[in-house]
Amino acid sequence: MIKIDFSQSKAIAILLPANPAIDLVASALALKLSLELAGKQISVHCQSPMTVDLNRLVGINTVSGAIGDRNLVITFPGQTDLVDKVSYNMDTGELQLVVVPKPDCVIDPSKLKIVSGTVISDLSILMGISDLSELTGTESLVNQKLIYFNHSLDSSASCVSEITSELIKAQALPINSDIATNLMQGMTRTTNGFTSNKVTKNTFDIASWLMENGSRHQDEIQASSFPAGSIPTSSETPAVTNPDPDWYEPKIYRGTSTS
After folding, report:
1. Who's near 28: CB < 8 A, 6+ residues apart?
2. pLDDT tens-digit readout, 64-113
3. Per CATH, which fold does 11-70+118-212 belong to?
């Protein structure tokens, strides 16, 4: 049974590799939606932009860029004990951070260190990633708790979406129609409509459970869905037929006279 302890984590970051397959994105968004319903603060990050074929996934617009593009962290290495308090003001129309030192202490501004894009979280889930080197800008993750969420959690599963479904089901995490639909999309696309040789009885059991929880069927877009004539049916040039011989003869038009 797959089990991950989320009880001690309030802010969780889910990190995707570059150019992720729909299986990983569907899993990340489904887990995000579920943990948000459980009262957690969740963010999903990917270092490459989301592609058009992922637009049917619920929550795809919430995926932000790589972990190095959000929060700005300012540190004072070796001077933490000298700081009394930190405040800010905008009296001049510009944001000013005010660092107040303790009595008889002086803070050396030359030791100021700015770290851009640090994700503030106490747990990072690396979706479909086996090694931290697969990501860029991971300096802020060095001292964080990391969970590698991939096939190593269940090598018999047909895809990561199946593993995510197992996790949500086993730990009784919240699930609704949007979550079930995302996971079903991930499973269906990855297993080529459940025809992959990796599909097992458990795969169908999970699919049935997702349907029981409101999974909506997503039809593939067919040419018949568009108005007639809007999609060319052939790229070949229509054959030219010769006109009747009398078409080339001069035409004589005679008017009628009236008396």
Report:
1. 14, 16, 20, 44, 63, 125, 127
2. 886 654 556 677 778 888 888 888 888 777 888 888 888 888 888 877 76
3. inorganic pyrophosphatase (n-terminal core) (3.90.1640)
